[in-house]
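pinning this so it doesn't scroll away 📌
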Amino acid sequence: MKTIVILGSTGSIGTNTLDIVDRFPEEFRVAGLTAGSNDEKLEAQIRRFKPRVVALSDTAAAARLQERCEDLPVEILSGQDGLIQVASASEADLVISAIVGGAGLVPTLAAIRSGRQVALANKEPMVMAGKLMQDEARRHGVRIFPVDSEHSAIFQSLEGHRKVDVRRLILTASGGALWPLSKEELHNVTPERALQHPNWKMGAKITIDSATLMNKGLEVVEARWLFDIPESQIEVMIHRESIIHSLVEYVDRSMIAQLGLPDMRTPISYAMNYPGRMPLDLPSLDLTEMGKLTFCKPDHDRFPCLSLGYESLRIGGTMPATMNAANEIAVEAFLNGGIRFTDIAGIIRSTMDLHTIKDIESLEDALEADRWAREKAESLVVALAR
């Protein structure tokens, strides 16, 4: 039996992970869970899965949970220190990192430094400090398993092959909810419209990232560090059906891809049980029913966030962390009605232009760039709202 900890258990990835645990109770035991402020959902998970320890980043939510769980043998922690303690739980064989945004960096790095194997579902830690993450993983003998559907597909397509034989990685993108719209139509898109993803059920932030194509910008940076492949060998292709999750082309021009219906439980289960596969009772892909699969190149004019991702990677240092933080602030402002959809890229662009780059030699360097970029992006949002 494998003992797991889930960072971000109340979100989309966390709940799908617990669905796998529910389906295979003889295979997995939950030792720890963390959440942001959703104490009610976390309470239900505690009562169902009986973890030894949990943490909420919101201290008020943790206090409410403590009152309601006095009858349960569970340790309840709070704040970032609490998240770090859960991430470092000594009994954990695997930590599933699914905290949304840059908030996942510190606890994920804590898990690595504690020697825990990591299944990485959130892109942002690798975007903010990819080299540092991999250096620490090597130092502590930790393997990082990708959970994101695209990176899981690449991981599977690389299995059994030499890295020297890789010609390029091709990340597929659905194009999100707004791909058919013109540049003019994008100007007046509402949050409700942008959240209507055609294929995937995800949280609000990642759904907006999918609509702007920033999701792919982040994934390009993540792929560079996960697979040690240079930016010049990483491409993005629009594939509206979300059936081919990504591809690897080799030097002999053969391609290997991973296909399947869009369901995150497939890549989650592979990371949880690697190298074995789990018999999931899910619908099977019938290519004869699909009829056709379509592909096209990204439109960098309508969706400039993808280019910003590539640019941040080429510049390096603290620029990817800066880009990521500015994006988080801009997306939140859009969801709250403070800016237009087309302002998101502009805020990221301006924040990047104003940033003084430095090398990331420590966790503090990444966190300082994140803090600076959030403050700068927030000031740009305020200026736009006037």
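📌 and the second one:
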Amino acid sequence: MIQESWTRVFACPVCLERAGCPQCTVAGGHDACVSGYASRASCACGGPNKRALEHRGEGFYCPCCMTRYPFGPGRDYVDLLPRTDVGRVSHYADEEFQERLGVREGEPVLSAGVKARMVSKMLGLAPGDTVIDLGSGAGKFATHFAKAGASVCGVDMAPFFLSSAIENVNLVAGDLRRLPFRKGAAQKAYSLDVLEHLDEAGVREVLLEARRAIGPSGRLFVYTHAMESSSIASFQRAVNRLAKRLGRAGLVDADKEAMRKSDHINAIRSHEHFDDIAKSVGLRVTDRRYYNVVAKAVVEDLVLKMIEQRAKRRSEAIGAAMASPKASERPSHVIGRRAPTSSARFVARGLTQVLMLDVALFGRTRTGPFFGVLEPLSA
């Protein structure tokens, strides 16, 4: 689904307009638009706007670099990835890796549900808001907020999406380090479990691009990790050690979590370090909550994993097909297992409430994982 309102704010990911403030204005053609991208984009004025795209036939066209950006199969998404190398590519962009993660249809629950509730609460999401999901993955969170009434555009470099996301979300294949949006394209944006995959330069680029996309009065939410810890976190580490021992005994599947974190760089050394990076691109942290996981460690990381592993073995023993249709039965860009049953959803929602206690009780206790809201310094 691509709404016309979003096509009007699509931009070439690599071409900046020539006109800006006296410090970032340049003269010339295409070479002038792309030369000195980093310094012009980070200008104190907010940088020049990006070149608007023209909607032509089965895609979009940049009149500056003359690049064509096509729709994906079925017009389910738009390919607005930069055609030039902008840095390291995560293995999350691999189709087989996405299938192994086993993303499931349905609302975010458990720790994902905690994150969704924190986005809604701290960003103040309301029906009618225009929102960009920075690093949307398969689109589970974007779908959740779209169904709640927001107009959501999900951006991810890996074009593999849930069917529900294709139906409800404006989907873009794009690189967060070169966001394909005009200034002020959205009122709000959020990024969940993304920044830890980037080096420091990449974190800075993503925040810089997000600042342009939300404009001078927008708000940005992030959930990520600083390389810090708390005394409470020692409990989670103990649970993780136990889970590893149970994994070696075949009682839990510890491989999926290890796979999910396998390309983490964790460039953010401390919360002050993150604040400094944000300030360097014209953003300031206006609210922060820490995520010390106690209930999650026991419920989701241990008990539910043991139940899940037992159910997996049982299904394998009776030959039940727990996964969604085979890749040959659906387009290659559509992924995801079927949604859980209504009774399972009911239980999961209740457990999500339990996991919210980690924020309610320990949200002010400083540790590495955190939820943060950022606003432009001029706001």
